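Exercise: predict the fold of this chain.
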Amino acid sequence: MNDSSWGAPPQAGYWGPSDQGPGQAAAPAGPAYDAHSAQQTRPLPIVPDVPEHGGAQDDGQGAARLSGPLFRDEPFRDDTYRGETPSAQPYAAVPQNPEPMPDAQQPAQPQPQPQKKSAGRDLSSAIGVGVGLGVVIIASLFFVKAVFVGVIAIAVVVGLWELTTRLQERKGIKAPLVPLAIGGAAMVVAGYVRGAEGAWIAMALTALAVLVWRMTEPPEGYLRDVTAGLFAAFYVPFLATFVAMMLMADDGPWRVLTFLLLTVVSDTGAYAVGWRFGRTKLAPRISPGKTREGLLGAVGFAMVAGALCMQFLIDDGSWWQGLLLGLAVAASATLGDLGESMIKRDLGIKDMGTLLPGHGGIMDRLDSLLPTAPVVWLLLVVFVGSG
């Protein structure tokens, strides 16, 4: 039997039923062929190989390229020439990045678990630093009052350095640090020695020193720089002077301890309740992390602590006075925290410094203490006198 099968079409370059020329080969047997028709078979023309690109254009050798709906311009796939079975769809219709079909035997991927709330800071470092500062403060407060006054002065100088440095870095404001640091330390000492009168005198002299010190530089930005300097003098050392004035009383260490405890308890209550139950934002444009539930926690914790402190730590104090004192401390501490948050948001920073791991800088710990100091000093004078 020859290579041709029944009904198979002739291939390119085929001159007849055999390779010996037309009319010389016997016709295949079968009802579709006879000898007469085989001898009358006309030779087929040679069809050129299909080029890589179709079309009716001349290839430069006189042969016309095929074009039309059966010959697309897209290139043929290599498997056409390898004898492989082509795809059922045209090559141009095959998507380049088809999505994988789901595997029925593939196990279902576990759903991601919701993340737990984060405290936002390194609690271990924050607690360690807080305990260390507490030991230093308590030791200096009850053993040598002058040492505690020195601790306040050091905190004031470092806070002024952080504040003026951030102002210059972020806003280009050059508040004079040297007169602020000297005047701030003198303000604290004058408040401890001479009370409110000494504090006001030192404040006035510090403001005058800031105005004069800035005159040694070019006048551009003078008003801006001295305004920032006066703000820094009032915000940090003058408010801190009220802590030294509390210390002047006979039960001064207990008054200062009450002030510190109420402020810390207020912050702790706000943090604990707000982190656990906080849903409604208190001031989202200033401090998105603070909630109204946290404020209620600060008020509740501070009022309970105030009642205990006034009843057992302050001479001639009463528990109901402690309730009012705790309420006032919660309000002033929250406002102080929001005030510094406003400053930091304006400066575009998260913390004023990095001196205290887990806390930030000194100013990040003084934010609620500074505005609370005059409130506690005034209420204690009203409730039990100046001592």
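Check your answer against the key: The first helix runs from residue 35 to 39.
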